[in-house]
Design a protein that fits this description.
This protein has 108 residues and is mainly α. It has a domain of 33 residues. The protein is built from two helices and two strands; from the N terminus they run E-E-H-H. It has a two-stranded antiparallel sheet.
């Protein structure tokens, strides 16, 4: 879900006050001119836009390649990968838990 939010309109401009220091002494009556700033341009009311996309249609292609058996020294293989080796039943159970539905055990 993507929610796009528009920012609020800027605040109205503040009144501008200009102050000037005048020498001490009697002050003459001065004329005051009051001129208000024009109203700000009206902004359209913000609206929330919610864009929701449907789930993409996925096409799953399963390919299982039997690469054969490689020659290896069993003792060296166990020494290298001994902590990570699984028996056949555990390997199949772990593959099924991961979503593999193909037959990965070939009966000889």
């Amino acid at each position: 879900v993507i929610i796009e939010r528009l920012p609020p309109p800027p605040p109205r401009p503040r009144d501008i006050i200009i102050e000037r220091w005048i020498q001490y002494g009697p002050q003459a009556q001065r004329r005051t001119i009051l001129q208000r700033a024009p109203l700000p341009a009206p902004y359209p009311a913000p609206r929330n836009v919610i864009i929701q996309y449907e789930q993409a249609q996925a096409r799953i292609v399963r390919q299982f390649h039997r690469l054969g058996v490689a020659q290896a020294n069993p003792a060296a293989y166990v020494q290298t990968y001994g902590a990570h080796l699984l028996d056949a039943a555990s390997l199949v159970a772990q593959a099924r838990a991961a979503g593999v539905v193909e037959d990965i055990v070939r009966s000889l």
